[in-house]
């Protein structure tokens, strides 16, 4: 989606970073004293979510820059660390939780490379492995064509040995990253889905083929890769479709380049359903067999989840027996029935992922 | 707006003209008639003089009926100006009732529908406190107007509680054929507001999921649709219909519940012991409970549970 309105905080100078961003977006920015002006502008629309996707607000992160992934109770979390570089997204996936998560949703770009560098230095000095991602509240690479941030992060991570940067995306915006000396400390990760779901539910994203082609390009430039099947959508014939996607992955990239693959079926805060029904009246995504999970999110009835996971894992194992597969927010029963074990102790799943990061990304193994 | 208190002949009132009547149906006026006979008419009705020398009632339809019931020939009324137009008379009709008691949802819908001939939603919202004795916002007024445009017997079903405002609102956004289909359903069942909404939601979601019109969902059913089974009383018909819709909306969950319930039944635990599966099977925690009146019963239950330890079906349920 093209940005047609640009707000920028009064206090932010048009320095190398923001000057570059503003010049590339090529819209006259409107200076604002505070976020309220932006909120008010977005809230006037009949569909604030759609308006927010075309309205960029360049500001500073006034809160915590690096934080732990919130996870949810009862289901096992991967102990991810979030680098908070922005919020919301220009793409328009029907199932996107960010539509219901922010009130109102605001497409924010947090400027201040110095501050990010400063906060990251504190992380790099710790005797601990970190897996850090920017793709929790936004897509990691939506601004790659117009921003210095992704390249800056790749170069910053390249100079240390205890952290990996995971850039999660549904775009193919990697051109500016390809020639960088990443020192294997950046994992470029793609969210994958079946072509049916991509075309019907992931408006504005790249096609499956394009994502895999980009993965191949990233791999050939030495980047480590990851794939996230999240959300997996259950529909008639989905097992076959997801297995075809898995088969395609390995037509494009080598299993050895893949640091991890995660699986997570579609789940949502109950409030999202109304948003989907209003904004995507054709979507039947929320009409699966959802029950209220123990974390108060709607989840597919567990036997259905287990069934699709088993099918996909068998297929993944056939192509890449050594690739680390994990679940995003699943419980003991699902782990045991689908993967044969449960990383039940606190931090156990995190440790598994850390080990894979150390192995693939040449991190300091002594920190494990 | 009305300038005179006077006595008029009952025969001069055009009882058929009910343009200002906002309460549907006919209330039982026996007690009111007795009261007027014994104590007298405490609040005179309001009438509007028409050009044909007749009067039409603005407020007090029940009082006039009660007076007719008492075979009286004259009644004391407030009379509006001869020049009074429809709009101020309608305001009187609504306010007279709204400041006597809270309007029912149907009365509010009828009132708003009639007012919408003179005012838009914003204007109605603006005068709502003075006329309706409550604040109505534009959105709610819009919803009520939509509901008011539903075909018959929507208002009747709302009046009887067969159709809640929430479900009516949902139905009012659908095409006429689908709306009529739901009205037919709710004329045959009697459910709480939340169950009504669940049924509407589930039917619409099944239809969307399966790419069918709601009307055609339960056509080829075996056994036949309980909605049309006249041997069932309303309670059972409602229960069976709700279950049928739920089963179709959540087929795997329903089937799993049934299988587990059948297995639990086959264990033949005594009636005092209850084995309850986890809700929606998301957790693995089954609960076992029993009730006792004395130590002997406690002992007996423990014995039954000990015997059940060897039961293979129980093992199968708990280890699945």
Structure description:
The complex is a heterodimer of chains A (368) and B (320). Chain A is of the alpha/beta class and 368 residues long. In chain A, 38% of the residues lie in helices and 20% in strands. Chain A has helices at residues 16-25, 35-43, 48-52, 98-101, 113-124, 149-157, 175-178, 195-201, 208-220, 238-252, 270-279, 302-319, 332-339, 348-361, and strands at 5-9, 30-32, 55-59, 66-68, 81-83, 86-87, 92-93, 107-110, 130-133, 163-169, 186-191, 202-203, 224-232, 258-265, 267-268, 290-292, 298-300, 325-327. In chain A, strands 4-5-9-10-11-13-14-18 form an eight-stranded mixed beta sheet. Chain A has a five-stranded mixed beta sheet with strand order 2-1-3-8-6, with helices on one face. Chain A has a three-stranded antiparallel beta sheet with strand order 15-17-16. Chain B contains 14 helices and six strands. In chain B, the strands form two sheets. Chain B has a four-stranded mixed beta sheet. A two-stranded antiparallel ribbon of chain B has the order 5-6. The longest helix of chain B has 18 residues, at 193-210. The A-B interface holds A 284, 286-289, 291-294, 299, 301-304, 331-333 and B 205-206, 208-209, 250-253, 256, 280-284.
